[in-house]
Design goal:
Length: 347
Amino acid sequence: MNSGLYRWWFGVVLVVTSVSVSAAELASVTVQKQAVPQQRLFDGVIEAVNQSTVSAQTSGRVTEINFDVDDVVPKGAVILRIRDTEQRSRSQQSQAGLNEAEARYKEAEADYKRIQDIYAQRLVAKSDLDRSKAAFDAAKARLEQAKARVRETQEQQGYTVIRAPYSGVLTKRFVELGESVTAGQPLVTGMSLEQLRAVVSVPQALVKAMRDHGKATVELADGQRLEAASMNIFPYADESSHAVNVRVNLPAGDYGVYPGMFVKVGFVTGTSEVLQVPMAAVAHRSELTALYIIGGDGRIGFRQVRLGNIQRRASGDQVEVLAGLESDEKVALDPIAAGIVLKQQAR
């Protein structure tokens, strides 16, 4: 063997020796049956928790429109204005009536106090005191009535300014600039994107189990799973389908979902004993799904398995093994390193 070929062969030997690993040295886990929640998945539709139609509470002509459909409206922002000439005139009249009532009240109060002092000196009859007291009480009542009228007219004037009850998106507009509106007429419809929920119809047979466990998850289109903040099971079933509607509230945050989108909603209906392994331990070879099993003799084997549901965890995803694995067997956690050991065993 020439020196060049010898150096090449010696280098290959060094490389193979450097990656030689025994099955005992592989990172592994001994699988045991674990109690995991059983879930049933259903299709759900996202909707806004806060969605409403704002209607006119007074009559008038629309003089200003500040937002249109699909615009984002901050809370308290003025969406539109209604002409307030008539309401402002009534407010001014009620304020004038209040000023007059206050003057009458002060006059009656001063007269009543004067009569009280004179009556204490026995210079007037009791009937004069009674008449003064009645006039004072009447003036006081008229003053309260005038104050109530001012509050009413001011509120009516406030109805001419339509403000957003919460931050959200305008979805419909029912009026145009210059159009006359009447009390009760719809003006705009909007919804808030800050609080969302998924609406699902479930078979009545599952309602009791869902109430007992009270847990649900929402699976988004990108695979992200959210723990439901809360859920509300309707106390009645649909007469035609006999299904029960459930509202599942999403936790606060921006998850890239919007009203009208489809999602998967899973409800916990019980628990079961299953075998689970880390997703990282699963090897995929073409259409074959398998695990590297470390036997009691220290040798490693490659075994096909059938997988079930994936359990999302902060420490790493776990997958249920439906067939091909027994309890107390040892599974290699690194498929690449395990494959190298299997090839070494075959030599």
